[in-house]
Amino acid sequence: MPATDWTLTTEGPQPDRTRTDITRADKTGADGPRAEATPADGTRADGPQAHRTDGADGTRAEERPAPGTPLLRYPPRSLVILTGLPGAGKTTLLRRLYGLTGAEGSPAVSGPAVVIDSAQSRLRWRGRLDRLPKPLRTAAVFATHVTRIARALAAGHAVVAHNRGCAPYVLRGFAWLARRHGAGFHLLLLDASPEAALAGQQARGRVVAPATFVRHRRRWEALLTRARAGDPSPAASAHVMTRADAARLTAIHFDATESR
């Protein structure tokens, strides 16, 4: 299959490239994410992001909901990793999109996709590894999480998976896993300010250690900078969402066809 140039498409006039969707030619020929929107005010869902100005409620301008109901479309057999700072709202987004309750101890099936949140693996091991040191508990949860992703890909499903870690070696591992099973690898980046992410951690009642958060922030900012500069590697595409974008997202579909 010929190589494909990845694009972002919206209703109305088609821009050549947007700020929030960074793509490259993919050797597998699979198509990249397409965002479709039906804005109430005629603005584009992929338009310029708002400047960072705090509102009376303490939120930044780009974190307040904007009009529109965008969809993201990926090809079948895609692995989409949703990542961002701890507390950014990744689990909240998956629960809203797929009707999850937080009580699931195993992946959820939604049409052609399997939805895999790391919280499902934590729940699977809750109370069973309490005697182990925390690093070993974390390793067991992560191994379970990755194994579930691998099994879903091996079964031919598309996968939407939460993963807070965005270290280069972690992303390279997901890229290898996708290639092994003939799937395209895509990043969905949820951009929240460190302050908003810390508030999200406090709201959920699980706050990461300060040193751990600093490490996550350093890796996240490096990934975000690269993606916005046009380098989504090791993924085929990287789509950046603000919290406002996430609040407007209505669905993720796996039915995109190859670009012509």
Brief rundown of the structure:
The protein is an alpha/beta fold. It has helices at residues 90-98, 118-125, 134-154, 168-180, 194-204, 210-228, 243-248; strands spanning 21-23, 34-36, 71-73, 78-83, 108-110, 113-116, 158-162, 184-191, 237-242, 251-253. It has a seven-stranded mixed beta sheet, sandwiched between helices. Strands 2-3-10 form a three-stranded mixed beta sheet, with no helix packed on it.
Features:
260 residues; alpha/beta; Rossmann fold; seven-stranded mixed β-sheet; three-stranded mixed β-sheet; Thymidylate kinase; transferase; P-loop_NTPase; kinase activity; kinase
Describe the structure.
- The protein has a domain at 79-254: Rossmann fold.
- The strands form 2 sheets. A 7-stranded mixed beta sheet has the order 1-9-8-4-7-6-5, sandwiched between helices. It has a 3-stranded mixed beta sheet with strand order 2-3-10, with no helix packed on it.
- The chain contains 7 helices and 10 strands.
- With 260 residues, the chain is an alpha/beta fold.
- Residues 14-29, 49-65 have a biased composition (Basic and acidic residues).
- This is Thymidylate kinase.
Sheet with the most strands: spatial strand order: 1-9-8-4-7-6-5
Report helical residue fraction.
25-40%
Discrete helix count? 7
According to CATH, the homologous superfamily of the domain at 79-254 is P-loop containing nucleotide triphosphate hydrolases
What order do the helices and strands follow? EEEEHEEHHEHEHHEHE
Distance between the termini: 12 Å
Strand percentage lies at 15-25%
Strand count, sense and closure of the main sheet? 7 strands, mixed
Poorly predicted spans: 1-30, 37-68
Q: Write down the overall mean pLDDT.
A: 78
- How many beta-strand elements? 10
Shape: globular
- In CATH terms, what is the fold-level topology of the domain at 79-254? Rossmann fold
CATH uppermost class of the domain at 79-254: Alpha Beta
- What's the CATH architecture name of the domain at 79-254? 3-Layer(aba) Sandwich
Radius of gyration: 18 Å
| Structure classification | alpha/beta
